Amino acid sequence: MRESHGAPATAAARQLVLLSVAAFASMTSMRICDPLLPALARDFSTTTGRAAQAISAFAIAYGLLQLVYGPLADRYGKFHVASRAALGCALANAAAAFAPSLDWLIVFRALTGATAAAIIPLTMAWIGDAVPYERRQEALARLLGATVIGMITGQWAGGFLADTLGWRSVFVALAVLFAATGVAMRFAVRRRPTDAAATVDAPVETYFARVQAVLRERWARTILALAFIEGGFAYSAFAFVPAYLHQRFDLAMTWAGGVLALYGVGGFAYSRLARSMLHRWGEAGLVRRGGALLGVTLATLALGPHWAFALPACLVGGFGFYMLHNTLQTHATQMAPRVRGTAVSLFACSLFLGQSCGIVAAAWVVDHASANAVFAGTAVALPLLAASFARRVARK
Questions:
Q1: Average pLDDT over residues 265-291
Q2: Do 236 and 181 share a structural domain?
């Protein structure tokens, strides 16, 4: 940490731990509904596609609120805003646990997305402020590990709890986790109130001027468009994997969620091998290979005659996705260096709005055709997207 020694450094380290736990909870909350779709469809007497609105509502709110939390954090402090958001997540998940109808559950999931949206981006920004550059990559790698483990936990625990205690217990567990984390963060703010103070107090006009500065850059518009398309295809396809395995192969939701959790394992493996692969293949080669792996993964899901084929498919899919996504994310941090914070916020917004639109479209296809059609279409679209991005990277 930038503080050289003593109590301040200890307090900053404690804050980083709390932020990492909050980031873990945020990612768990994001992916927790994927394996719940069959249970929600059954209990509310609706279709899987209609139940999937609980996922798209979270994604829409998460994406839109990205544009709000940056200015709030500049005014009131990153850790301060993130701590409030954690408490908001606790309330939203508690409400979801007692939702009397699917419509109310969708509303509460949107509120969860709106509050969870602050945590991971502000944690990254806090690390940028508090950790010197020579140690920043190490700190961000630990954060990536926390979020990937959160993804795995959400995809597995959602199915396990739904099978054993019912889907409402999922949201009770999340409410408890967020409440404990949020309270601990508020105590940390009180012990070190200077961390909650703003370092920048930019007027609203300045923020919109920064948005315009990003959108004037042709490369920035390209990256934002690619992020929207990637979110629309990749996230929506994998969201339906547990429901597909449950409905087609009668696989228990605990095991269906566990199969999808291998997607996160693949992402974690990529984070450990990324440096050597980048050195060996370069960015364009990494993107092309990632797109090819995603194509193989989704074709296997669409055509596999037994649920066991999904085991290696999800593992390889997570690895391939992060080969593509992390390269795209890296370019997002450089697409408008003068207004980097605003640029990254727009990137996250584009990604999650793409995800929400993709979920809506994929849900319609699932209800009117099958999940196989979603997997097959994505198996073609993502390699084409990767090839286009790789060409642009090579030219640039």
A1: 87
A2: no
